């Protein structure tokens, strides 16, 4: 296979000493990173990165970059959000070129807005680079659209986990409306509540649901189920975070639109084509 390097010339000022770039690293596949994000990563003195930023994206930084892991998982935080905020302020105040890398898009359930507010409060210049969010990546790689003129005229991104482990108080009636797609981020722990509330508000037990674990990565797993079997499906397949819950009729299109894995595909895990097909299409 021939190797190609992409040449690019972006009309953008260099990252200045003491400036922070809040960057969306995308859902996992390094090929989904934007050229603007790549250009800024290559300029960084310091990388402050989350749990879901892939090692392939991190490898794009210069060898001498300082790395700060601030990842968060359920009940397991390398740093609190307040500590992460303080770290960004400290590094920028020291005159470092700081790249804050977040999985997906920083302004969609990525706490990027909170961090930007802290930078403004401390007079620190920053810029934001959007990334392909998990919902977009998982749907495209999973073989179904998020909107479709015949099935869904709108899409809603919803947090399935509230701040401080509080109650998940959502407008369930609106989320159960017809002709829409609803994507729950971080919703595994509340899957029983999601299933119950949506059915109480009018969606049928047979309403289609896609569960996509580690979307766009070599470890992607996808299971198609329905609202009535949501919890049992999660348990049966032992699905773990990060897993998106996609609710809507668009999920039915996976039978038509899902693409076969090419025979020449090379997987980072070294698995065979047969294993990869079994993994992705359950």
What does this structure look like?
The longest helix is centred in the first third of the chain and has 13 residues, at 81-93. This protein has two domains: 20-132, Cobalt-precorrin-4 Transmethylase, domain 1; 135-280, Methyltransferase, Cobalt-precorrin-4 Transmethylase, Domain 2 (2-Layer Sandwich), CATH 3.30.950.10. It contains ten helices and twelve strands. It is an alpha/beta fold and 282 residues long. The strands form three sheets. It has a five-stranded parallel β-sheet, with helices on both faces. Strands 8-9-12-10-11 form a five-stranded mixed β-sheet, sandwiched between helices. The protein has helices at residues 35-43, 55-58, 81-93, 112-121, 134-142, 172-175, 191-200, 230-237, 254-257, 273-280; strands spanning 20-24, 46-49, 66-69, 72-73, 76-77, 98-102, 126-129, 154-159, 180-185, 208-213, 221-226, 243-247. It starts with 19 loop residues before the first strand and ends with a helix.
């Amino acid at each position: 296979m021939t190797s190609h390097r992409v040449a690019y010339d972006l009309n953008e000022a260099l990252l200045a000493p003491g400036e922070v770039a809040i960057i969306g690293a995308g859902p996992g596949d390094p090929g989904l990173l934007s050229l603007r994000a790549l250009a800024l990563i290559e300029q960084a003195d310091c990388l402050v990165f989350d749990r879901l930023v892939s090692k392939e994206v991190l490898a794009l930084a210069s060898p001498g970059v300082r790395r700060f892991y601030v990842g968060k998982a359920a009940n397991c935080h390398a740093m609190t959000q307040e500590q992460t905020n303080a770290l960004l302020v400290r590094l920028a105040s020291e005159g470092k070129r700081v790249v804050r890398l977040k999985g997906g898009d920083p302004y969609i359930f990525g706490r990027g807005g909170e961090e930007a507010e802290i930078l403004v409060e401390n007079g620190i210049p920053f810029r934001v680079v959007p990334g392909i969010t998990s919902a977009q990546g998982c749907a495209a790689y999973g073989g179904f659209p998020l909107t479709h003129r015949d099935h869904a005229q709108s899409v809603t991104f919803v947090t399935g986990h509230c701040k401080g482990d509080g109650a998940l108080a959502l407008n369930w009636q609106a989320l159960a409306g017809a002709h829409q797609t609803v994507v729950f981020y971080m919703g595994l722990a509340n899957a029983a509540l999601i299933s119950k509330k949506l059915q109480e508000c009018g969606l049928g037990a047979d309403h289609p649901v896609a569960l996509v674990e580690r979307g766009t990565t070599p470890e992607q797993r996808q299971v198609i189920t329905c609202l009535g079997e949501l919890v049992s499906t999660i348990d049966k397949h032992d699905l773990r975070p990060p897993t998106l819950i996609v609710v809507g009729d668009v999920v039915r299109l996976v039978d038509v639109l899902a693409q076969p894995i090419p025979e020449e595909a090379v997987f980072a895990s070294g698995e065979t084509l047969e294993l990869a097909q079994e993994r992705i299409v359950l």
